[in-house]
Design brief:
The protein is an alpha/beta fold. It is built from 10 helices and 10 strands. Helix 4 crosses helix 6. The termini are far apart. The structure holds adenosine-5'-triphosphate and magnesium ion.
Length: about 260
Amino acid sequence: MTADRVTFTYPGADRPALSEVSATVGRGEVVALVGENGSGKTTLAKLLAGLYHPDSGTIRWDGTDLTAIHGDALRRRISVIAQDHTRWPLTVRENIVMGRPLDEERLAHAAAAAGADRVIGELDQGYDALLDRRFRGGHDLSGGQWQRIAAARGFYRDATLVIFDEPTSALDARAEHALFERIRRHADGRTVILITHRLASVRFADRIYVLDHGRVAEHGTHAELLRNGGLYADLYELQASAYQNPPRSSQNPADQNIPQEAL
Ligand SMILES: Nc1ncnc2c1ncn2[C@@H]1O[C@H](COP(=O)(O)OP(=O)(O)OP(=O)(O)O)[C@@H](O)[C@H]1O
Ligand SMILES: [Mg+2]
């Protein structure tokens, strides 16, 4: 899949969300899109998935211009776990299967892959639990629990391309690690576009595109980008330093107003 000098402006916007963006996503690869808020990551993923059409430039899948591929055929091949994933007022099972033929084994597999199995296990009615608090007997889930259900939806679909748009923003550390591990194993041979701000988790990606104000600032592997010393290296160092250099005051109890006998 390739984007060739793609430019896209949202209706009514005064400047393009993407300008002359070129990118390549190989079959079976995990390609990460990173960059600051508003840099164009979600927009690029939606263009690559054929959800929006570029104003200029082309998106090709296996050499075929995306505009020539029928919408239904495209939708069958793509699974998008959107940043603002939908919380359907339906049962857990319906939320994951979402219009696809039901296959219980596949369902269990997808739930486990997304870490949703633990959430479902704690619901009295399991897969039959209604996720709608407005009704008697309905349940609501926490943000992170919903995110696991949304990820399970993504794994359930038999798509060749899976787009994970910040799939772990609400997940706890353990669930986040587990989900990235699963994506790392190429989600069972599928092509993955992964959008995340957690740079420690994109090190394994086959290729990383760094977006800045709607343009590709740089691209390469994690090691290449660190060597470049550009935007990616800056953002990565910033995140890494948050873990490596705790403030001095927290290293030295004497600097804090904590009674010694409490330590
Ligand atoms: N539906 C929309 N209508 C108009 N402008 C939009 C729309 N969605 C996004 N934009 C604009 O397009 C630009 C790119 O947005 P996009 O959502 O692709 O950024 P992003 O990199 O995914 O950001 P974030 O990290 O916050 O998710 C931004 O300037 C944003 O304001
Ligand atoms: Mg986004």
